[in-house]
Design a protein that fits this description.
173 residues, alpha+beta, five-stranded mixed sheet, two-stranded antiparallel sheet, elongated
Length: 173
């Protein structure tokens, strides 16, 4: 079941809009290729878009399975991935967007306050783009199979500066 992943800002005048996204195989394959995955066998999201100030707020979560290449054994393996989405969007020119920081400004980050809203280009919210961005953040950048073991042992060769002199010395016969 694939549901339209776009919501127009004007649609929120009647209240929150709920969307269940379950991309088809072709969409998942394109997303997997864009994220550098071997495959994306499953992906599903439940999102709610609700009015916020002069923009909107997107909240919900997603679950899926990703197939990646193990960094130790170089074999593909599948693992589950999930995440929460809590995002605010405001139209360009909104007074609720953060001030321009291109002229040496600084951002103060607090873990107790929500992230500032992001600019919304146009009046359409593409939930598949938002889902793809949050999926990219949830994927393990250094995937390792649970049963993979890295085995390495250092060379036992004598690497001291006197090793070459010892090699020249004749052994007593």
């Amino acid at each position: 079941m694939t549901v339209d992943g776009t919501v127009r800002l004007g649609d929120l005048a009647a209240g929150p809009v709920r969307r269940r996204l379950k991309p088809d195989a072709q969409t998942r394959a394109a997303l997997a290729a864009r994220l550098g995955l071997e495959a994306l066998p499953e992906l599903e999201a439940d999102l709610e878009v609700r009015p916020w100030m002069d923009g909107c707020e997107v909240v919900g979560g997603f679950d899926g399975k990703v197939t990646q290449v193990c960094g130790v054994s170089l074999e593909p393996f599948t693992q589950t991935v999930s995440g929460d989405i809590d995002l605010r969007l405001a139209p360009e020119g909104s007074p609720h967007l953060p001030a321009d920081l291109t002229v040496g400004g600084e951002i103060e980050v607090s873990l107790d306050t929500p992230d500032p809203p992001e600019p919304l280009e146009g009046d359409t919210i593409d939930l598949m783009v938002i889902l793809g961005e949050h999926l990219a953040l949830a994927i393990d950048p250094f995937p390792k199979r649970p049963d993979a073991v890295f085995e390495w042992s250092p060379e036992t060769e004598d690497a001291s500066p006197f090793a070459a002199l010892r090699a020249l010395k004749k052994s007593p016969e």
